[in-house]
Amino acid sequence: MLNSTNKKSFALLTSEKLSAKDNMLIDKELFKAFKPNGLPCFRVYEWEPSFTYGVSQKIETLTDREDLKMFGSNHAQRMTGGGILFHGNDISYSLVIPTFYVQGLSVKASFELIGTFLMAFYRSLGLEPIYAKDAKVNLSKSEYCQEGYEPYDILIDGKKIGGNAQRRTKEAIFQHGSISIDNSSYSIGASLEDLGITIGYEAAKELLVKSFSQCFNIEFKQKNQEQLYAS
Question: What is the DSSP string of 18-46?
């Protein structure tokens, strides 16, 4: 299990700002190349100003929106659900693990388990995160990720700070999510800056990695993509 006390080895991938297409291509390749007996992967990365959209959305129905035109062609479809999500002021993580790491858990329970490190991240900043399912908000869908509320979206002071999405096969689970750091790029929803937290992107990425490592007793092996695919 992911939350067992046993020491677990993970590949750690980090990157600077990439385009939406490049970031989503890396995530897809990591998921596609993963083998159950291979090294699980935790990736932390940044974005150029851009947007992504959910697997069920069609770009043809979105490009006439004024708030999307500013990004030109810098957009990409995620392989997970949800709506439009703006990037450029955020850090993101992606995670690929074998399904036996959450054996016996429902999809909802796996969200809560994996989300442990995100809750720890926010608490380490002096914030009090809560899942939407435990808050007094109406769960709802929206064409924009930050305007809808799924059960395991994270709220702070009544404001949505982050959401997470999964993709599964019989052998692997992929999950990713984003955290808005400041208001340097167009976005919807709350950022850490809005909540009174000032932190740089590198420091936020380092803290996210530390939170993941401590929550799940992880030993990281720094890798690049080529090394990981070859393992």
Answer: E-HHHHHHHHHHHHHH--TTS--EEEEEE
